[in-house]
Amino acid sequence: MPRENANTVTDRPRQLRTLPVQLKYVMYLTLTGGFTSLVMIFVMAWFIQRNYNLFMGDELGVSAQVVQIVRHEQRILETWLFILFLFSILTMFIATFLMIRKLTTPIAAIKRQLTLYSRGDWSHKLRLGENDEFKEIESLVNKIRNDVLELKDKFESLP
Fold it and tell me: Where are the domains of the chain?
């Protein structure tokens, strides 16, 4: 029974490690890009606020109606900056997800095929998409497969 408890304890970290690798990197890159975007938007908001404060500080020739209009415009600008931030986060997430997926899909296919080979199932060749990354590895893995099958046939034909 103590062994069962040890397995359940180690299963939890293992579950975290089995998250799709692409989601982990998508989140890292999205957070990095989001932080950069947030800093840029805060800088823009700071300049806008500074300019409005300079304008509002000159109250000598400004009517109350103009002050009200300027404050309304300031709220609109701040709202649009927030919308721009959300849009940039969404765009970064989608773009990063697509890029990482393009890289990790062939890696997952190679890993899957090598797992089959390690179990002794040599019946299938590795096939990657036409425009996939790591296309040159496909021919190497298939050459290894063919060589192993040749050696297997030679070994079985020995008396």
Answer: 2-157
